[in-house]
Amino acid sequence: MAIITVTQDNFENEVLKAEVPVLADFNASWCGPCRAMHPILEEFAEGEHNYKIVSIDIDEESDLADEYDVTAIPCLVLFKNGAEADRSVGLISRDNISALLEG
Question: What is the pTM assigned to this prediction?
Answer without folding.
Answer: 0.95
